[in-house]
Structure formats: C-alpha cells, structure tokens
Amino acid sequence: MKRRTEMSLLERLYLGEILRGLVVTGYRFWRNLSLHALHAVGLFRHIKAAVTVQYPDEYKIYPDNYRGSHRLTLKEDSSVRCTACFLCATACPANCIFIEAGEHPDPEVEKFPLRYEIDTLRCIYCGMCVEACPCDAIRMDTYVHPKIWGFNRADFVETKETLMNRSTVLATRGRNALMDDQIADYARQDEEVWERFKG
Ligand code: SF4
Ligand code: SF4
C-alpha cells in the first residue's frame, strides 16, 4: 500500500485544525463559565465544572513518588553524608553539579564537599545523580518543584547549605513545609518587586 507523505494545500494552511481548536476551547470556556455561574446560585451542582488551582494561594499536594528539587541527606550528627566522590557530577548529563572536595577532619572519612552546588537552570531533573550516588547522599524526594523565578542567575544556584537544609526541614516540619516556605519566599519577593516599583 502506498503511503501518503505530502499534505494538501488545505492541510498546510492548518485552518481546519485551528477552527477545531477554537471550537474545543470555546466549548470548554462557556461550559465552565455557565456551570460556575449556575453553581453560584445553587443550580446544577451535581454537574462538575473544571477548576483551576489558584497557585500560589493554593497548591496541589504532590504524590509520594513525585521527584522534584534535590536535597543532600544528613548523617545522624546532621553533617553532610556526601563524600565528594564526584560520581553524581560525572553522571550528570547537563553538567550542572559543581563540587569542591575537602579533607574531612575525621580520619575515618576521606573527603567531604566544601562546596556542592546545582545550577537548577541547567538541570533537566533526570535523576541520574541520585542513581549514581553510592551512599544515598542525594535525593529528589522533597515534594517541592524547582524555583520558578528570581532576580538573577545566582538565585537559581542551589548551595550545599540549601540542599542540606531541605533534609532538615523535611525531618522536622514534614513533607509540605518546603512548598509552604517556597510560596512564602515568592510572596516576599513579590513585595520586594512592588517596593522597588513604587520607590
Ligand atoms: S537531575 Fe540530572 S541534570 Fe539534574 S543535577 Fe541530577 S543528573 Fe544533573
Ligand atoms: S552526592 Fe553521592 S555521588 Fe555525589 S559526590 Fe556526594 S557521595 Fe558522590
């Protein structure tokens, strides 16, 4: 059977598809608008209307298997578990992990990271660093998505302290605390921008 590879002129204009998209969008818009208006006066409440999560005033609770921002795990004495072996940085396809290794004061431990940084603007959240780590020192089970805005590139580089702090917050305040903190941080940044604009 001969395969058809070329599009007709009508198909190349995409007019049919554009119209089809407008019909679907228009139908959804008016259906939801009408249903919400009817719900407001107590009618047709048994028919569900679509709702949008009003982020950041509210947010979805991510599932248990969600993998988002990184954290560096801690030992029992709250020191960093990472031994600065560079396996994660070597495995990282985006080349966005920077580690500076130092001699550990404990002779039983060879090295530790003086600096451990992830450039989240380059990270593709593939999880290869987590897979590569031989001592469970880095995880992505923080239930928080990557930061979405900042004032400059440096705002998106996560330091060792930030990554360690995530483990502390998770252990002490529970799984939604990091998202609460991130949203509070956005609100603070909003205020800053607004003050700059006014000033
Ligand atoms: S998730 Fe992937 S891209 Fe991001 S730091 Fe880890 S290995 Fe690199
Ligand atoms: S996080 Fe794991 S893989 Fe990366 S340097 Fe530390 S110990 Fe090695």
Would you give an account of this structure?
The protein is α+β, with helices and mostly antiparallel strands. It has 2 domains: 11-51, no CATH class; 71-198, Alpha-Beta Plaits (2-Layer Sandwich). The chain contains 6 helices and 5 strands. It has helices at residues 9-13, 15-40, 87-91, 128-132, 160-173, 177-198; strands at residues 71-72, 97-103, 111-119, 138-139, 157-158. It has a 3-stranded antiparallel sheet with strand order 2-3-5. It has a two-stranded antiparallel ribbon with strand order 1-4. A hairpin with a 7-residue loop joins strand 2 (97-103) and strand 3. The longest helix is centred in the first third of the chain and has 26 residues, at 15-40. The radius of gyration is 24 Å and the shape is extended. The protein starts with 8 loop residues before the first helix and ends with a helix. It binds iron/sulfur cluster (2 copies).
Associated small molecules: iron/sulfur cluster
Figure out the total of helices: 6
How confident overall, as mean pLDDT?
91
How many strands? 5
* CATH level 1 class label of the largest domain: Alpha Beta
Rg, Å, rounded: 24 Å
Tell me the series of helices and strands, N- to C-terminal: HHEHEEHEEHH
- Oligomerization state: single chain
Percent helix range:
25-40%
